[in-house]
What does this fold into?
Amino acid sequence: MTTTGPAELTLIQVSDTHLLPAGELMHGRVDTFALLETVAATVASSTGPVAGILLTGDLADDGSPASYRRLREIVDPLAATFDAPVVYAMGNHDERLAFRAELLNGAGVPADHPCDSVHLIDGLRLVALDSTTPGRHDGWLTDAQLAWLADVLATPAPRGTLLIVHHPPLPSPVPTVHLLRLAAAKRLADVVAGTDVHMILSGHAHHAGAGALAGIPVWISPALAYDADPMPPDGRLRGLLGGGFSRIDLIDGQFVATAIPLTPAGHVYNNDRAEMVEFIRSVTPQTTPG
It folds into this structure.
């Protein structure tokens, strides 16, 4: 498969899938397995290639082995289509023992050991940090994890580093999400400042968002399962049907994050790609202004 777009490297980020055993619906009405099937079909039918697939936490709603197996029913064939590695990161709904056994092939590691990992994809380093604490839903990184991260980042990677952490190291306009963000994010900022980290990827919030930590862009991916309404009626908190995922592209030496909604919508246009690109080129001056 060849690409006709500008991206030098494309990663797919799917967060907060909240899968459940067969026959169960999230909140009694959301078929998260079907939503993940839609993501897989969307990615498989798009212009490739895909260099890696990132699953950034809350992969199972109940932390059960059966839910992780259902996840792999969809993710493994999609990864094989692109010959792309899969990076799994823990979320607060995940359960470490089952997560390790079903997704990381690491059964037997004690539950108090975080699921931190390092991956290299085409010269790009991806570091997944486990920001969970068993029995809690807010985010925290231990001193030992931060020391380990500093050691990893001491040697730059050829294409730099993307850091994955489920809990956003940013405030949120949604008060419940704000309470459950990564606590004491300045501790992480002190470690990543001045390193080769190009972007921090997170999820958890169930709303897309962006900011910066130590001058490094932070991207909060939309959740697959549902959207947290960031501007509900006064006095209300709402979860809305509909979700999405993200693509992370390296274009002209820069990393760009793009939210992709799953909510069906009608077309404003649906034209041949090559013809549209050629048209835009024909009406765009080839010299810069001034």
Remarks:
- The longest helix spans residues 65-82.
- The chain has seven helices and 13 strands.
